[in-house]
Specification:
This protein has helices at 3-24, 30-39, 46-58, 82-107, and strands spanning 28-29, 62-69, 72-80. With 113 residues, the chain is α+β, with helices and mostly antiparallel strands. Strand 2 and strand 3 (72-80) form a beta hairpin.
């Protein structure tokens, strides 16, 4: 089994959750999301982010609006829909349960051999 592949799968599994949390704070531009994810050491490229944002939009979890920019083309700003907010509440509850369960398993001492 390849450690790096498993690590990539773990990161992919929580990427959507992290993106929804970033957007939940208020309207956000995609490059700002990339910057925050990179700063948090979640390596994400545009080729991963934009299809995910499209999928979330098509699922009715987020919407966007175009905003004119003084220094270039218009920018697309994303925000959560009501459905997206409800979805994020459910994901957060699941995350909290998983963290609690994982910590419970990891904190048990090994049984003597």
């Amino acid at each position: 089994m390849n450690l790096e592949n498993t690590q990539i799968q773990m990161r992919k599994g929580i990427l959507e959750f992290c993106i929804l949390h970033i957007i939940a704070r208020g309207e956000v531009y995609a490059s700002d999301m990339l910057g925050e994810l990179t700063q948090a050491k979640m390596i994400v490229v545009e080729g991963t982010l934009y299809p995910l944002l499209t999928r979330l939009k098509n699922a009715g979890l987020l919407e966007y609006k175009w905003v004119e920019s003084k220094s270039g083309p218009p920018r697309k700003y994303y925000k959560l829909t009501e459905t997206g907010n409800s979805f994020l509440v459910g994901l957060t509850e699941t995350w909290d349960d998983l963290v609690h369960s994982t910590q419970a398993v990891r904190s048990k001492s090994q049984a003597p051999a």
